[in-house]
Amino acid sequence: MDLLRSIGITEIVFQLMLVNAILGLSIYLTLYTGMFSLANAGFMAIGAYVGVVLTQNYDLPLWAALIGGMIAAGIVAVPIGLPVLRLRDIYLAIATIGFGEVVRILILNFDTLASSISGESVQLTRGALGITGIPKITETWQLLLFLVVTVYILVRLHRSRFGRAMAAIRQDEQAAATMGINVVYIKNTVFIFSAILAASAGVLKAHLTRTISPGDYGFDQVVNILAFAVLGGTSTWLGPIVGGFVLTALPEILREFKQYRGIVNGVILLVVIVYLPGGLVNINGWKRLWRRIRGQPSVIERIQQNTRSG
Amino acid sequence: MNRKLVSLLFVFLMVFLSFGVITAQDEVEKPLVGFWESCPTPSNLPATVTVGAIFGLSDAVAVYGVPQRQAVELAVEEINESGYLGETVFEVRFEDSAGNRDQAIFAMTKLVEEDKVLAVLGPTLSSEAFAADPIAQENSTPVMGVSNTALGLTGMGDFVFRNSLPEAAVIPGTIAQAKEVLGLEKVGLLYGNDDDFTVSGYQVFRQALLDNEIEILGEETFAKGDLDFNAQLTNLISQEPDALVVSALAAEATQIILQARALDYNGPIIGGNGFNSPAVLRDTGEASEGLIVGGAWNYGNPNPTESSVRFVEMYEAKFNQSPDQFAAQSYTGAWLMATAIRCADFGADADLAEQRLAIRDALLQIRDFDSPLGVFSFTEDREPLHDPIAQIVSGGKFEPLAVVMGESG
Amino acid sequence: MNITQQIVNAIWLGGVYSLFALGYALVFSVLGVLNLAHSAVFMWGAFIGLVAVTQLNVSVWAAIPLAMVVSGVISIVLDVLAFAPLRRRNAPRISQLISSIGAAILLVNIAQLIFGTQPQRFPLGSIPSDPLEGLPIRITPIQIIILLVAITLMAVLQYLVVRTRAGQAMRAVAFNQRVASLLGINSGNVFRMTFFLAGALAGAAGVLFGLAYNTITPFMGDSVALKGLTVIVLGGLGNIQGAVVGGFVVAALEVFSIAAGGSNYREAFVFTLLFLILLFRPQGLVGQAAETRA
Predict the structure, then answer these.
(1) How far is C56 from chain A (nearest CA, A)?
(2) Distance in Å, alpha carbon of A197 to nearest chain B alpha carbon
(3) Angle at C215 between CA C214 and CA C218, to 5 degrees
(4) Has residue B3 been placed in a domain?
(5) Do B48 and B160 belong to one domain?
(6) pLDDT in tens, A137-164
(7) Is A216 within 8 Å of B101 when comparing Cβ atoms?
(8) Same-domain check for residues B133 and B190
(9) Distance from C142 to chain A by nearest Cα, in Å?
(10) Distance from C-alpha of C259 to C-alpha of B234, rounded to nearest angstrom
């Protein structure tokens, strides 16, 4: 523990590493099923605001707020997922970014909107000022437990019929459909799971950082969440966890670099992605890197070189 | 093209494009700031006292955070060279929060729990302060915001201070004076609705306008980072307001002034703290004529205190740029912290908790402290108390609003 | 005056948005990759123009082509460092997206080290900024100049892509890289050329933004990155006319939602339209065949 602290990983850093690992898993679920969805920040916002309103305005305990936030996000995910998941790749990505931005703007203007509809002054989300003074009640063991349970469910899922269907859709959606897999059902269910996971991270994080505002859930946050999964790798559930850990801890470990921190951070990110395009948790990537270092091109690369010169 | 050659060219380009900042150093004179008389030179302090500072030094917030760090560095240099703390070295450890709440929390935890600093200056943004200051409070460590203006900030605990005047202390006076001077009856209101700084400014403006029975013809909003305000301004200007009232940060303020003038609006523009940057006046040129700003400190103040003049000189000599309000407040903040340490004069053998408590108590005692911000005191609620400024740009420079009022009335 | 002025505002803003989106769209159309470092090259373009004017005492008109060339080179370096190695390895496009984010972080931080964080500007009066007299609407010479330059650049780009051999090669690679190689097209050269052109467009946009809004910081790309994305998707991904149409549609929607008194929700309107367009016309406003890309 002392060793970790000496390199900048204090308890709060570790707690946010766990939160970000959960966020990484939430986007991993959709990516694993071949869906490039970026709605996670929007669902995280829904979870955070619903959760905080439940603990602050209704004095509910954290676990109840957690369930409340998850249910709210799950309910919103249904009407969003049905039309949007017909889209693919970058189109899906942009549509879901659009969803996230609309959520952010609605939260920003919620009080004005609610006041003009109800005719009396509503102060719930407090606009850009955000909600402050939220007690810090999330504990490390709760985060750990939540992560372990999530991973357990994921592992069980991967081994189930449902999990194999997810992988099949990622491989080839049309082939999966011909094989009798209900693609629409699987995709929407995964999307809802992903939303619920993002929302839970939102609730847990809000009760760590003591304050939330709409700006926390914008485009930057989505890009961060995506980076957790891609840097870690999306071939197994371990990837996004490692990605979330590394990307949260790295800037703290690099604090000693002072004004060069951003540059060092950017270089590391670039080098990892360029040399390990499958992510940190991808054994083939490391093997290929090892061969490169020793100067032996892989079979595939040799073939590629031949094709190019020809 | 050869890949190595391209990379080399790139590096060459970077070097070629960089132009160094010339730094010059003045001879040491006795500082004009400080309780040289009221508190004796300390004799018990340890060899080094370390204070932390959390500023946004990277990302977009660095526009404010970098001047803050520079101003603190200037104060530290002055404090050590003048022997303000006797034999003791005053050290400030800077941490970057990048305008990010998580990083502000991390930085505060590191400084307070790991580095065990005596007190903390910052963080830059109010939203960061609401997340990070409770950590200082829980560890009974004094924390002083030098740019936080949001409502309820010091309510977080009895170790949370700020030396930055909240909008509520600045804007009502500006509006009341502007009404008297210009006979305002109806105005258009423009503000950024996704930023806590501009929103709290807007709320105070709105209340002040209502209190002064000035009609608000229309309210328009923009988002952080917007560059184009033509549509909003066209709406407001078409309603023929007596003045435009704007709550914006410096970057947007410049654009708003220029675009309003380009749309043929020649009336007064009233702004809050965000307009208080030398860049606004410099970058708007003639368009700034008739601009009215209320704030805690202004580069162009026609009646500055002696220490303010000295601060501007030193800052310009050292950093080759003009200080803004954030710099002046940070500079004062560092001096206030050093003053509390000087007056506390705790022993080197006192434990950390006692030292932090002593600094907190000494900060609470600071009254009538002559600083670039004017004569400064902390209230019992750890809030700042000093005269705000209300000025109008007239003939290309800032004049006190009241003087212009005398001329026109 | 009000509504005519708002129309002028919308046209002006549309020109600004399309100008930024052009290079973005070009890279996407050829590589099928979202280059999130495009906004960082744009920022470098503005700084190069500024350095040319203030340090090298070059006129604004000479600074624009200079910035275009240098930004083009920066853009090629970007390709060599961040995209080419991944292409060679057939890495998923999503890795290239993240790689471009790393490159953007790097470019912004280097700019911060070199140029500092304080907003900089072209000297006052670099170009005439007084509104034109005698018109029922308010418009400044710089606004007209930027619109003209933007339209010229769009036309030149369109000509390059549609009429020239190089453009044909680009379209062939965009259509199918393998088939293009079989036809004897060196796809590496095509990629580098695409990045050079995109960088040059970003550079021109950077200088013109710098002149129009006169605030140049290492972070100026942030505010247009997401907007540019919206514009190119709305118009039709990977489509040059699409970028232009998208730019004007987004601008019109923003300006008229403000004119109608909804400045709080203007971005929500834009994203809702985006959402609906994607659902009902995923090829965008201008696009023809729906083509799957990642």
Answers:
(1) 28
(2) 20
(3) 140
(4) no
(5) yes
(6) 999 999 999 999 999 999 999 999 999 9
(7) yes
(8) no
(9) 32
(10) 8
Q: Where are the domains of chain A?
A: 2-260
Query: pLDDT at residue B403 above 80?
Result: no
Compute the nearest-CA separation of B60 from chain C (Å).
Answer: 6
Residue B46 belongs to some domain of the structure: yes
Q: Find how far residue C6's CA is from the centre of its chain.
A: 24
Domain A2-260 top-level CATH class: mainly alpha
Based on the structure, what is the number of domains in chain C?
A: 1
Supply the mean pLDDT for chain B.
88
**B15 located within any domain:** no
State which residues form the domain around B397: 167-295+389-408
pLDDT at residue B26 tops 80? no
ipTM of this complex prediction, to 2 decimal places:
0.89
State the alpha helices, DSSP H only, in chain A.
2-6, 11-32, 40-57, 62-84, 89-108, 110-118, 140-159, 161-171, 173-178, 183-209, 219-232, 238-253, 261-275, 283-294, 299-309
pLDDT at C126 > cutoff 90? no
The answer to whether residue B221 sits within a structural domain is yes
Amino acid at A193: F
Interface check for A97 against chain C (CB to CB < 8 A): the answer is: yes
CB contact under 8 A, C74 and B14: no
State which residue of chain B sits closest to A262, comparing Cα positions: B58
Which residue range is the domain that position C248 belongs to? 2-122+138-280
The CATH number for B216's domain is 3.40.50.2300
DSSP conformation letters of B302-323: SS--HHHHHHHHHHHHHHSS--
The answer on B310 and B266 residing in a single domain is no
Q: What would the two tokens of residue B383 be?
A: 């809030």
Token digits for C43?
A: 């920022």
Residue A28 has pLDDT above 90, yes or no: yes
B106/chain A closest Cα distance in angstroms? 6
* Count of structural domains within chain B: 2
Query: Which subunits have 3 or more CB–CB pairs within 8 Å of chain A?
Result: B, C
Number of Cβ within a 10 Å radius of residue C159: 11
Q: Is residue C208 part of a domain?
A: yes
- By CB atoms closer than 10 A (0-12, 13-18, 19+), residue C262 is middle
User: Cβ separation of A277 and C91 shorter than 8 Å?
Assistant: yes
- Tens of pLDDT, residue by residue over B37-72, are 889 999 999 999 999 999 999 888 888 899 999 999
* B253/B310 same-domain check: no
> Residue B28 has what pLDDT?
54
User: What pLDDT score does C293 carry?
Assistant: 39
Residue in B193, B251, B258 nearest the CB of C119: B251
pLDDT greater than 70 at residue B363: yes
Those of residues 231-290 in C touching chain B at CB distance below 8 A are: 254-255, 258-259, 261, 263-264, 267
- H or E element: which one contains B293? strand B291-295
HEC assignment per residue over C88-101? HCCCCHHHHHHHHH
Residue in A with minimal Cα distance to B197: A129
pLDDT in tens, A96-143: 999 999 999 999 999 988 998 888 888 899 988 899 999 999 999 999
| B50 backbone dihedrals φ, ψ, rounded to 5° | -115, 130
Could C101 and A307 be called an inter-chain contact, meaning their C-beta atoms sit closer than 8 Å?
no
| pLDDT for the residue C288 | 58
Whether A114 has its CB under 8 Å from any CB of chain C: the answer is no
Nearest by Cα to C173 from C155, C193, C157: C193
The pLDDT assigned to B408 comes to 38
Pairs of CB atoms within 8 A across B/C: 127
Residue C97: CATH number of its domain = 1.10.3470
Residue corresponding to tokens 């991808």: A282
Mean residue pLDDT of chain A comes to 90
Q: Tell whether B212 lies on the interface with C, counting CB pairs under 8 A.
A: no
CA dist C64 and C80 (Å) reads 24
Contact C118 B58 (CB under 8 A): no
User: How far apart are the C-alpha atoms of B300 and B282, rounded to whole Å?
Assistant: 11
